[in-house]
Amino acid sequence: MKPSRIDPEAIRSRLRQAQGRDYWKTLEELTNTEEFQRWAEDEFPHRSIEWLRSPNRREALRLMAASFALAGLTGCTVQPQEQIVPYVRQPEQLVPGRPLFFATAMPICGYGLGLLVESHEGRPTKVEGNPAHPGSLGATDAFAQASVLTLYDPDRSRAVTFRNRITTWPRFLTEAAGIRERQSATGGAGLRFLLGATSSPTLAEEIRELQAAYPKALWHFYEPVGGAGARSAAVFGRRLHPIFDLTAVDVILSLDADFLASGPGCLVYSRQFADRRRVTGDIKNMNRLYVAEPALTSTGSVADHRLPIRAVDVEPLARALAREVGAAVEEAPGKPGDAQRAWIKAAAADLQRARGRSLVVAGEGQPPAVHALAYVINEALGNAGRTVRYTEPVLLNTEDYMQSLGALAEAMRQGQVDTLVIAGTNPVYTAPADLGFAEAMALVPTRIHLGLYRDETAELCQWHIPETHFLESWGDVRAYDGTVSIIQPLIKPLYDGRSIYEFLAAFTTAPDRRGYDMIRAYWRKQSGSTDFETFWRTVLHNGVVPNTQASSVAAAANAGAIPPPAPSAEIVATNVEIVFRPDPTVWDGRFANNGWLQELPKPISKLTWDNAALISPATAKALGLRDEDVVEVSYRGRSVRAPVLVMPGHADDSVTVHLGYGRRRAGSVAQGRGFDAYQLRTFDRPWFGEGVEIRKLGETYSLARTQGHHEMGRRDLVRSVTLKELLKNSASTAHEGQHPALSLYPEYAYFGYAWGMVIDQGICTGCSACVVACQAENNIPVVGKAQVLRSREMHWLRIDVYYRGEPENPDVYHQPMLCQHCERAPCEPVCPVAATVHSADGLNQMVYNRCVGTRYCSNNCPYKVRRFNFFLYSDWYTPSLYAMRNPNVTVRSRGVMEKCTFCVQRIESAKIQASKMNRRVEEGEIVTACQAACPTRAIHFGDLNNPNSAVAQMRRHQLGYQVLAELDTQPRISYLEVVRNPNSEMPEA
Amino acid sequence: MKRVNVPISQPVPFSHEHHVRGLGIDCRYCHTTVEVSAFAGIPPTETCMTCHSQIWTDAEMLEPVRQSYQNNVPLTWNRVYDLPGFVYFNHSIHVSKGIGCSTCHGQVDSMPLMWRVTPLTMAWCLECHRAPERYVRPREAVFSMSYRPPANQLELGRKLIGEYNIRKLTDCYTCHR
C-alpha cells in the first residue's frame, strides 16, 4: 500500500497545531493519514510491485539449491573433512590468525587518501584511515571503505583483449612497439593521451619522458567531476590550489559547496569543523555555518542557517555578499530578491564581525565567477593567509577538464588523431552529451584503453588492458595538501592487470618495466639520501613522504578580473533549472558496480540502487507530481526519463539529478540501474542551466528508499538545543516525556567491563562512512533493490534523518541508530531458544547458531535495529568474495537474525591481549569499525566502568540522553543533543 | 557424530610419537604461534626441511616434503581438530592461562598418526569454562606431555585461578561472533 498523496496544506496545518518540538522523517508522515499509519506500523511493508513479482527460474533454482544444502547439514552428520595448507616458507612477520596492517593510499580524482589496510594472511579485508596522513587523520570516507569490494569484484576486467578477443600482454607490447615506430617518425603528431586526474610525481616524470619521445603528442586530462581549483585562474592570473584551515574559523559561508562531504580534504575539513562544535569541548566558541545551495547536502544538513536557492542564483547572491563586505564588484540586475537580501545582510554582518576568522567557500558546481567572488570576499574579510591559503596546484593537470576533453574531441573530428590512448577514465560514458565524444572517437584508427572494467569506453576501443586496483599495484599520489604517499600493494594482481605506470611504459623505449622498479627509481633520485633503503622502508611504513606538502604562495585576488554579471533575460523555455551533481554513493559512476555503495542509503534522500530527479514540495505541487512518478526531463533538445523524488529543503524551480547511473556497459551490479544524467549534460554548462521542461508520463517507478523504514513512531527520539538556550540554562535541559525509571527488579551489577557508546549527534554529517565500515568489518550482505523495497536491508547501523519545521526549509538532524545494547533488552525475554542473551560486560549477544528465526526479537525491539536473513543473502558461491571476508566474523546463513555486536571480535581480541598481560583493557584499545571510520569523531566507545573513560564522562554530560529511555530499556548507547548556533539577527524565513 | 579416536590419514605419515617422545622435540618447535595467536600454527615445509635436509634425505616417505620444498607447493594436511565455522577458539589465551596441550589433544606423544581424543562439543568446552579449576595446571607444565593432574587438583586449580586471573567465561560471545 502506498502512502497517500502529499498535501502541503495538511502538512502546514499539522505543523501549526503541533506543540513543542516536532521532528518528522517523511512528508507522508506529516500528513499522518490512516493509510500512512497502517503502512508505517507494518514491520516489513508489502508495498512494492516488485515484491509481487514471482522469482524467476534462476532465482528459484538458487533458493532451492540453498535449501537443499541446508537440509543436508543437520546436527547429526559427520563434519566434512577439512584441509590445512601451511606455507612452504612462512613470511617472517606473518603470524597466522593475526592481521598485519600496511600503509597505502587510495587515489580519487587525483588526490590521495592515506590508509592502513588490514591483511589476513595476505588478503586485504578492511581499510582504516592512516592517522599519520594529513588527508585522513585516521578517518575514511565511504568510497575508501568500499574499495575492498571493488578489488574482489568478480565483474572486473580480467584479460587483455583485442577486438573483444582475449590476447596477451606481450602481444600488446608488440602492438605498442609498432605504434612507437610509426609515431617516432612524426614526433607523435597523431598520438593523443587521455588520462584521469593525477598528482603522481612518478607519473609526471613518465609523462615528461614520453613528451620528450613524442614532442608533438598531446596530453588531455578529464574527470567529469572535480577540478574546481582550475577556476582560480581568472582572479589570480594563474591556477592556484586553495587549502582551508577551519580550526580558527568562527563563521563559514558555503556558496553551494559540499565541502564537508566531497572534494579534496573533506575529511580534514569535517574534523576541523566538528572540533569547533563538540559539546564536550569549548562549546562557547562554537562556529557558525551558513549554506546557500539548491539540494540538501551533508554540509547543508548541519548548517545553522541554510538558504535553499537555485544554483543559478548563487552568483547574484555572491555578488551581493561581496558588496556587503566592501568588495568592488558589480551587482546582478534585479537580483537577489528581498528575502535573500535580508539573509545575505545578516550573514555578511556576521562574517564581518569575524574578520580574519571567517571563510567563504565556493562549490564545485559553480562557475569561475563564483569562485573568484569567494576569493575576493575572503580577501576583503582578511581571511586570505589565515583561514584560506593558496599553493601551487597539487594535480599535474591544471587545465579545465571540459576544455581539455573538448579540444580532444575537436581534434578527433578533424582527423588529427590516429592513435588514442585512454587510461583511468571513462569518457564515452561521462562526456557531456553534446560533445559527441563517442562518435568522434570512432574516427580514430587505433584506440587503446586501460581500465578496471570493460566499460563503455573499453567497448569502443580495439585494445583493452585490465588495470590493477590500487590495492594490488605500486604507485604514488599526493594528498589535498600536497603530501606524497607511496601506494603499496596488499596483494599480487588478481588478474592479468597492469598499473598506469606499466601501461604507459609500453610506449617508451623500455616497454616492459615493473611499476615497483619505476616508483623506486624515481624516489631513489628524489630522496637524495645515501641510505635509500632506510628512506624507502620508512616512507612505506609511515605512509607519507616527509616534507612534501605544497608550500603556500602569496596571491592577491583581483576583483577587477571578475566578469560582469551575465545579461539576465536569456531566452529559455522555462525558468526551471537543472543541477548536475556527482552521486553521493557511486560518485561519477566509477563505483556503480560496488554493491555496498549501491545499497548504501544516500546521506539525505536515503535512496538506494537508483538516482532520481529531486524537486521541492512546492515544485512538485505545481507540476502535480509525487514521489515515484516518472517524468520526462527535457533540456536543450535532449531528454531522459526519471522518477521523481520530492525532497524537503530543495530550492523551488530546480531539479537536481545525480550522475553515475544508467550505465550502459558495466558489471552485473551497475548495469541498467537508474537513468543516465550525462545524457542531459552539456559542454558549455556542465553543472546547471535553466530551461528544463518536466512532463509527467503517468507511469510510476519504485524507488527503494529507506527513509520510512524501521519507523520508531513519533516519539522523543532526537533532541536539539540552540547554543543560546544551552548557555542560558546551563544547569539542565528539561526533556519532555522523560520518566524516571521504575522497576521491580534490582539492577544487575557489572563487575568487569561495561561497554558503552556515546554518539555526538550534533557533529554527524550523515556521510555514511560508518555504515560501509560496519558492512566491511562484519561481513554484512547486500540484498538488492527488491529486498530493500521490502525493508529488508541488512545494515546493522543506519543513519536516520529527521526534519523539523516547514518542509520548504527544515532543520535536519542525523541520528546514527544501531543496537542499543539495552541492559533490559526487550528482545531477550521473547526469544524462545535463548539465542539472544546478555553478557557479563553488558553486551546484548546474538548467537547465530542458536537462532531458529522466529523474529520475535525483532518484533519486540523498539529501536528496529535487528536484521533478518530472509534468504541466503550472503554470497556463498563467488570464489573471489571468499577472500574479502573478515575471518573473525561468521558469514551468516538464511533464517538467522543478526544485529550490531559492538564489533565483539575487536573487543574479544583486545580482552585476550590484555588478559595475557594480566591487565585490564585500557581506554582507546578497542575502536569499533564505525568509530574508526568517522571523519568527525562523533562516535565514542569504551568502558563505562572506567570513570576516566571518554564514554563514562560523556554519558554524564548534561546534554546526554538515551533514546526511548522512558521504556526503561537502559540503553548502553547515549546520544548528545544536537546543538545549533543560529544567528539571532537572522530574519525568520 | 564426532570422529573421536579415529586416526586420520595424512599425505606424509608424520608421527608425533616419534618426534615428541622419541626425539623430545617441544610442541612449539613446529606450532610456533600457539602462544601469540588464535592458531597454534602448522609448520611450513621449511621447518620439516631444517632437519630433513640433513637426515633421512632420501627416505621415500619424505618425498612429498621434498617435492613441496623444491616446487614451492604447500603440503595439504587433513585437519584433525575441526571446530564449526561459527566457533572462534584462541590457543594463545588458553596456553597462557595454564591449559595444557594434552588436556584437549591427549597424549600426542603416543600417537603415530593423529586422532582426536575429545569431542569438541559445546558441552565439553563448557565443562572447563564453568569450572576451570578442574583442568588448569601450572604454566610451566603446559607443554609437558608427562604432566598428570595431582591428587589435590581442585585445590591447586583454585589457587591458579587466583594467580592467573582466570575468569569463568560462559558468555556466548566468548566463542561465537
Q: What distinguishing features does this structure have?
A:
heterodimer; A: 989 residues; alpha/beta; Rossmann fold; Dimethylsulfoxide Reductase, domain 2; Barwin-like endoglucanases; 7-stranded mixed sheet; 42 strands; B: 177 residues; mainly alpha; 8 helices; globular
Walk me through the structure.
The complex is a heterodimer of chains A (989) and B (177). Chain A has 989 residues and is an alpha/beta fold. Chain A is 26% helix and 19% strand. A seven-stranded mixed beta sheet of chain A has the order 7-6-18-17-16-8-9, with helices on both faces. A four-stranded parallel beta sheet of chain A has the order 13-12-11-14. In chain A, strands 24-26-25-29 form a four-stranded mixed beta sheet. The model of chain A is unreliable at 46-52 and 64-75 (pLDDT under 50). Chain B has 177 residues and is mostly helical. Chain B is built from eight helices and one strand, in the order H-H-H-H-E-H-H-H-H. In chain B, helix 3 packs across helix 4. In chain B, 27% of the residues are buried. The mean pLDDT of chain B is 93. Classes of the chains: A alpha/beta (989), B mainly alpha (177). The A-B interface holds A 76-79, 81-90, 95-98, 752, 837, 839-841, 843, 845, 847-850, 888-891, 901, 904-905, 907-908, 912, 915-916, 918 and B 1-3, 8, 33, 36-39, 41-46, 68-69, 72-79, 82, 84-86, 88, 90, 92-93, 96-97, 164-165, 167, 171-174, 176-177. Strand 2 of chain A pairs antiparallel with strand 1 of chain B, so a sheet runs across the interface.
